[in-house]
Amino acid sequence: MNKGTIHVLIAMSLVGASAFAAKERVIRFQNHVRLGYDSNIYGTADAEGSAFLTDIVNLSGKMNFSSRTDALVYWQPEFQYRFDADPKFITYQDLYGRLNHAMSQRAFLTLSDRFRYQQKEGQTGLVGGGVQDFNQNYIENDLQGAIDYTLSSKNYLKVGGGYEVRVWDDSEYGKGTKNNDYNQLTADGSFIRQFKPNKTQGMAGINYVNNEFAGDRGGYDSVTVLGGVDQNFNKNVTGYGRLGWSFNTVDGKESYDTSSPYLQAGMEVNPTARTSFNGSMGYSMYRSENSVYNAQNRFNVGLGAKHDITAKISLVGSFTYSYSLYKSDYAADVDGTVDVPAGDVDDNYLTLALRCSYQVNRNNFLEAGYLYANRFSDFTDWDRNRVDLGWRLRL
Fold first, then answer.
1. Could you tell me which of 48, 47, 34 has the C-alpha nearest to residue 390?
2. What is the pLDDT at residue 16?
3. May I ask which residue range the UniProt record assigns to the signal sequence (predicted)?
4. Helix (H/G/I), strand (E/B), else coil: 2
5. How far from 293 is each of 13, 287, 335, 375, CA to CA, in Å?
6. Residue 330 has what DSSP assignment?
């Protein structure tokens, strides 16, 4: 029994005990079965394709323990068989739990934890050539906590923190010569004021991030001072914006001090009951997505849309784009174990996804999906096309 299985069994035992103790429970279940083909199953320049059969289970529940305490639990295991890949059978896990508790009339506590067993993201890869690091799986756990405190009818305080850890299956990749395992500590505090109830509120705050990779590879520290606004323009349009400045220290071959802008913004538009759009963008310092650098300056954009064509047919689409700048000053202390490119390095990654669903009856749906992904950068270039047909059961 591997570490991932043990963690899931422990987590599910805690979930089951909590659900049994709850006074009121709402449980939802969905099962997705999909048959498809992936033209680049590993996400590399060699572009090896394979057909696949996958089963995704989605189990969620909301539990009310009292008028002051409730919990939300979400579990999504995925089982996938790949006809022409190694290994052929893989499994992933995604388990999330959140506890909400009113400590008093003024203080509200939120605790959450997310456990994932997943494969590397499309932008992850070994920069500068050498041994390909495809087909890498990892365990990740992200624990978060926050307290909201009401100062008055218009003023609020919020403080929070988190601890995230990632451990890769391959010990040589996670520790060894690559040292891609990491721990990340976060802390934040903000003052929030409502200018117009249920319409406009502003905030000012400070965020802290400390990321440390395994061994003596290094990491980075970042302190961000920011301000922002949340706005309900009308019943169909909402938006938010955050703007600030980050003061960073990247520890690698040498300690490098730098500063950078911080931006987070998003908007949601619901023009009709059957149509919705959303978009977001951001710019910040972020942890590295490869084995050579300890940090990156990342810009990202996301767009999404959903439309119910009829009462039974729905269409969902999304687009994401990430641009990463890896400065030479961000290079890790790799001690010659991998090749470090000369100068700064650009990395671009985009995805386009479409999914159509037809409701056969109350509980059964037929689906068709398409995903296009493309990575183009100074050190690698590949794309992939993935199509699937599926059946979804909802109870």
1. 34
2. 55
3. 1-21
4. coil
5. 39, 9, 12, 18
6. G
Q: Is 17 helix (H, G, I), strand (E, B) or coil?
A: helix
Name the band, by pLDDT with cuts 50, 70 and 90, for residue 73.
very high
- Give the three-class secondary structure for 73: strand
pLDDT of amino acid 291 = 81
The whole-angstrom distance between residue 85's C-alpha and the CA centroid of its chain comes to 26
User: Hey, what domains does the chain have and what are their CATH numbers?
Assistant: 102-113+126-394 (2.40.160)
C-alpha–C-alpha distance, residues 53 and 80, integer Å? 6
Question: What pTM was computed for the model?
Answer: 0.86
Query: Residues 356-376: what's their mean pLDDT?
Result: 96
User: Is residue 218 classed as helix, strand or coil in its secondary structure?
Assistant: coil
Residue pair 113/97 in contact (Cβ under 8 Å)? The answer is yes
**Collapsing DSSP states into helix, strand and coil, what is residue 326?**
strand
Region of poorest pLDDT, from 91-100, 210-219, 325-334, 386-395: 325-334
Write phi, then psi, for 386 (nearest 5 degrees): -130, 130
Decide if 365 contacts 355 (C-beta within 8 A). Answer: no
Token look-up 């390909």 returns 132
Confidence category of residue 128, pLDDT binned at 50, 70, 90: very low
**Is there a contact between 63 and 19 (Cβ–Cβ < 8 Å)?**
yes
Outline where DSSP puts E strands in 151-254: 155-168, 182-196, 200-213, 219-234, 237-251
Q: What one-letter code names the amino acid at 182?
A: Y
DSSP characters for 169-197? SSHHHHTTTT---EEEEEEEEEEEEEEET
Tokens representing residue 293 in the block:
């650098």
Look up residue 84 and give its two tokens.
């022409």
How many residues does this entry show for the chain?
Answer: 395
| Contact indicator for 294, 213 with CB cutoff of 8 Å | yes
CB 130 within 8 A of CB 338: yes
